[in-house]
Amino acid sequence: MPRIVLETERILVLNKHANWSLNANQLGIRDGYYEHVRTALLDQRPGVDLYPCHRLDRLTSGCLLLAKDATTARHMGDLFASKGAEERVSKTYVALSSRKPKKKMGRVVGDMD
């Protein structure tokens, strides 16, 4: 059963563990985290569907925001897509390491491998 961090009338926030692809069919994976969550939770919530509002890479753990209706999903997607002064939602990534970083380390810009 997925761990629920927060649930309201319109959203569900879950704790996604690392090594789960969000969707099936990525790298030949049959079941993604999203499909797993829908199977586990929708029987308990008649009339509700779940829509991912953003994605987390397979290796990334963290809070995953799901909307309970298409209108909320579109609204949240628009908020995540907004840039600059209009930005009202953001993601923060924290990296843990067993090594001390070099002096010039401390900010990652762009895609990560």
Task: Describe, in plain words, how this protein is organized in 3D.
A hairpin with a 3-residue loop joins strand 1 and strand 2. Strands 1-2-4-3 form a four-stranded antiparallel β-sheet. The longest helix has 12 residues. The chain is an alpha+beta fold and 113 residues long. The chain is globular. It contains two helices and four strands, in the order E-E-H-E-E-H.
In short:
With 113 residues, this protein is an alpha+beta fold. Helices cover 19% and strands 17% of the residues. It has two helices and four strands.
Key features of this structure:
113 residues; globular; four-stranded antiparallel β-sheet; 2 helices; 19% helix; alpha+beta
Q: Tell me the major beta sheet.
A: 4 strands, antiparallel
Strand content: 15-25%
Question: What radius of gyration results from the CA coordinates?
Answer: 16 Å
Subunit organisation of the chains: single chain
Share in helix: 10-25%
The topology string of helices and strands comes to EEHEEH
Q: Which stretches are poorly predicted, pLDDT < 50 over at least 5 residues? A: none
- Spatially, the strands of the biggest sheet line up as 1-2-4-3
- For the termini, the CA-CA separation is 29 Å
**Helix/strand class:** alpha+beta
Shape: globular
Mean pLDDT: 79
Q: Helix segment count?
A: 2
How many individual β-strands? 4
